[in-house]
Amino acid sequence: MRALLTVFSLAALTTLDDANAARILGLFPHTGKSHQMVFEPLLHTLAERGHHVTVVSFFPLKDPPENYTDVSLEGIARVGLEVVDLSFFENNHFISKALGVDNILRQMLDLHQLVEMALGTCSKLVNWPPLAAALRKDYDVILVENFNSDCMLGLSHIYGQKAPVVALLTSSLMHWSPDRMGVSDNPAYVPVMSSDFTPRMTFFERLQNTFLNVYFKLWFRYCIQVKEQEIIERHFGRRIPDLQDLAKNTSLMLVNVFHSLNGVRPLVPGVVEVGGMHLNHKRTAIPSYIERFINESHEGVVLLSFGSLIKTATIPEYKERMIMSALSRLKQKVIWKYEESGEEGTLEGNVLKVRWIPQYELLRHKKVLAFIGHGGLLGMTEAIAAGKPMVVVPFFGDQPYNAAMATEVGLGVKLSYEHMTEETLLAAVQTALSAEMRLSARRVSKIWHDRESKPLDTAVYWTERVIRWGFHDPLHTAGRDLNFIEYNLLDVAAVFVLAIVVVILILKLLLTAVLRLIKAGFSGKDKEKIH
Ligand SMILES: *[C@@H]1O[C@H](CO)[C@@H](O)[C@H](O)[C@H]1NC(C)=O
Ligand SMILES: *[C@@H]1O[C@H](CO)[C@@H](O)[C@H](O)[C@H]1NC(C)=O
Ligand SMILES: *[C@@H]1O[C@H](CO)[C@@H](O)[C@H](O)[C@H]1NC(C)=O
Which residues, including other chains, have CB under 8 Å from residue 263's CB and lie 6 or more apart? Predict the structure, then answer.
């Protein structure tokens, strides 16, 4: 009987060991196209490796590989592509600037836009039959984006999902991520991701950083998590566990950063840096009119792009003229990603405005020397992978921090959009084009590439590791199960303080008693003298 059991459990072990043909569910309820661009290569590769992959997102593939099933969320919300109007960044927040709190206020306002997005989507997701159908099936692992929403975690619970959860992040850890893995985010040296601080902070920066660290956690808890919980419970008419506790059941986090670009911070085994996993190393063709323009440049080319979210054509006219006159003073040619340009680009002097650029392909072109970008993490990652120096003009979200880190690690220089002048822009581009900066960018690129395995392979390995071992292989610290008081040792500190107070009181009592005795002794002697 015993032998038979052993054989059975051994058989169970070998099937456990085998991550082949696992059933994988991906849940991606965010509308930003750039986010999906980070996940796609991983999902694609998992399907190519023989797994059965079901992907719920706003961006179904045109040409899905075998065993890859799309569940579309199209129609639930407007997708985020070229939606940010640049006129928004003119002269705003001037009252807060007068009060000296514009930096804090910017970060609060930036994030606040995510509330409506999360709650709007969640209230549609609860009643989306294709999603319900997908959630009723069984899976071996669930991949879910960790961004501004935990709605999917609640829905997975509603439909009885028991598989381990892998959280994917397109940026560095969100303010509310570290608590899910019990990883330290001590604000003394870990800047909040929306700040423009580097890990070395002054007293006032630490003050702001600590305030924001706490504020954003509470903000996520009460402005999003609690409300999503209400949306789900109201729709299904029953209670579910606290979303915060469901979130603390995350097995693994794959984070789209790498320390040599994004800064060193404490990690645990279950928080794995896979920055660069979205890069497509296959070469794609450059449109011939762009290639011809590059071929014809003798001094090289500078690339200018503010990414996929910002609609560059909304730039105020005076600012566009200013940028154009700065660029016209360069020896180099310039390619500017600008939506409202001709079919084959619009040529103005040495500047070619084009609707769409194969950005990573161009950055790797040997004649492309520098990159003026907005500090979006994907563009930054492409620049460091290609070893090209940057001028970073940050706008919102994590861009100010990315800009600060680009300066810190020697990848480029940062430039304020608001205070940009013809002279500062020209000077910044010339700094980026200098021999020292180009050399420095090549060096940080080599350091960034130097890893045990390629980021996509790392992501696949850890995902399959979770498929193999699931809850048998905890990758978080016990810190995540402690409450605020325990985690920060406030109870222990209280006991120490109490103990010190008690000791002081006892010492004081003893001292008074001794003094009284001595006094009594003296007065006794005095009396003897008199007699
Ligand atoms: C797709 O799944 C089927 C059934 O599990 C399997 O036989 C086939 O090899 C898979 N295809 C790929 C490309 O892995
Ligand atoms: C995490 O989820 C698994 C599967 O649903 C469950 O067995 C386990 O108890 C959960 N752990 C916690 C701490 O909630
Ligand atoms: C650009 O130059 C390369 C290398 O000299 C050449 O192969 C390519 O055909 C040229 N492209 C165009 C569009 O002129």
Answer: 191, 198, 199, 405, 408
Q: Give 16 Cα–ligand 1 centroid separation in angstroms.
A: 19
CA 40, CA 201: separation in Å to the nearest integer?
A: 36
Q: In this structure, what token pair is assigned to residue 148?
A: 């501004």
- Residue pLDDT, tens place only, 43-95: 999 999 999 999 999 999 999 999 999 999 998 887 755 555 555 555 555 55
In this predicted model, what pLDDT tens digit does every residue of 185-209 receive, in sequence order? Answer: 999 999 998 899 999 999 999 999 9
For residue 196, which of 38, 422, 375, 34 has the smallest C-alpha distance?
Answer: 375
Give the closest residue (by CA) to ligand 2 atom 4: 162
State the Cα–Cα distance between residues 498 and 339, nearest whole angstrom. Answer: 66
**Amino acid letter at 44?**
H
C-alpha distances out from residue 86 to 90, 108, 150, 371, Å: 8, 19, 30, 19
What percentage of the chain reaches a pLDDT higher than 70? 90
Predicted pLDDT at 78? 76
pLDDT by residue (tens digit) across 292-310? 999 999 999 999 998 766 7
At residue 526, the pLDDT reads: 60
The CB of 50 under 6 Å from ligand 1? The reply is: yes
The residue whose C-alpha atom lies closest to atom 6 belonging to ligand 3 is 295
Query: How do residues 147-185 score in pLDDT, each as one tens digit?
Result: 999 999 999 999 999 999 999 999 999 999 999 999 999
Q: Is the CB of 249 under 6 A from ligand 2?
A: yes
Scanning the structure block, which residue is given the tokens 């440049």?
A: 297
Distance 314 CA to ligand 3 centre (A): 34
Please list the alpha-helical segments (H only) found in 33-80: 33-48
Cβ of 288 below 6 Å from ligand 3? yes
Q: What is the pLDDT of residues 472-482, one digit of tens each?
A: 999 999 999 99
Nearest CA to ligand 1 atom 12: 50
Query: From atom 12 of ligand 2, which residue's Cα is the shortest distance away?
Result: 249
Task: Give the end-to-end CA distance of the chain in Å, rounded to a whole number.
Answer: 101
Ligand 2 contact, 162 CB (< 6 A): yes
Lay out the sheet containing 368-373: strands in order across. 346-348, 351-354, 333-337, 301-305, 368-373, 390-392, 412-414
pLDDT-flagged residues of the chain (< 70): 1-19, 80-101, 308-309, 524-531
Closest CA to 272 of 374, 181, 383: 181
Task: Return the ligand number nearest the Cα of 292.
Answer: 3
Mutate to test the pocket of ligand 3, among 288, 289, 291 (most ligand atoms within 8 A of CB): 291
For ligand 2, what atom is nearest to the CA of residue 471? 3
With both helix axes pointing from N to C terminus, report the angle between 317-328 and 422-433 in degrees, rounded to the nearest 10.
Answer: 40
